[in-house]
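Quick one before lunch.
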Amino acid sequence: MVYVRISILIMKILLKIKQIFGNLFIYTTWKDNDRYPAVVYHNKFVQKLSEISGYSIFRVHFWSFFAKRKKYFAGFYNGENQTGNVEIDELFSKGYLLKENFLNDDVHKKYSDIFQTEVDRYLNSDSFKRDERNQIRTSISFREYNMRDFELEFKKLLLPLVKDCYGEIKPTFRYELEVSKDGSDYESAFTKWHPDRLVPSLKSLYFPLGVDIAPFSYIQGSQIIDKDWLKISKFFRSIKNYELISKKTMVLKNEARLTLNEAHKAGIRELNNLLPNTFYLGAHHGLHRKKPFDAPGYRFHITVEFTYDYTKFSLIKDGLKGFISFNNSK
Ligand SMILES: [Fe+2]
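Model of the fe (ii) ion complex:
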């Protein structure tokens, strides 16, 4: 009888251990299909443990070890493009690049008409007028249109800028509209200065209709991973600045706001007055935000994600390749 009890107890302990490791694995992934290192574990206990034990900073250095040895990412450690592709120089010197007249005129004309039609349709709809919220952030559906030419052309132009880093890409497009009816805005995790990752990472945006209100903002220079960047990372690794909003999502607390130093303040670039057909590619381990609205209006933009297939394992593989070829060339 005693043996049966002991066996059951051991079974229970093993199950518990399996559950803890299972959870740990879950909390290291984010948004389900995203397997690239996140800023924090989306679990208070795991993140706290990571912070107290020193693992949270070790993790940053660990991923940097591999990133530094990948030619494309190496430029984020010294501010100089190492790839030989001069088209992307500004990504390393400024943290982002803008390309005006991105799509060819025909494609842009055809699709900007479609985008404007659907944005106007939404803004004139009864549901929008009846909506009591003063600020609305929503996605717009273009399912009834054939978006193939737009998405193919976009991919064709994006690919040469990022292929050296991510290989063949499968971009996904999110068509997003943000509106402030009365010029007021609330501060969300996205309207505060933040990095998306604590390891080099890129993101692209496209403004088919241009922007003259509530611009996207970037702190030039914050893309360089140095002592100052590590200091900033401390704020974003600190559990006291976070709250859990669902089982798998932690976000910065309402009152948590990074204090910018003078160099940061001097580096702020508001990407305002962008012409229609402007493309943006940014290093999102640097500080950026969506500037809160300060006047009534709307901003339509397309977020293009193309990094989902690039995982922490891809980073390890590329880093090791760089490490081996460096040692062989010595
Ligand atoms: Fe972001």
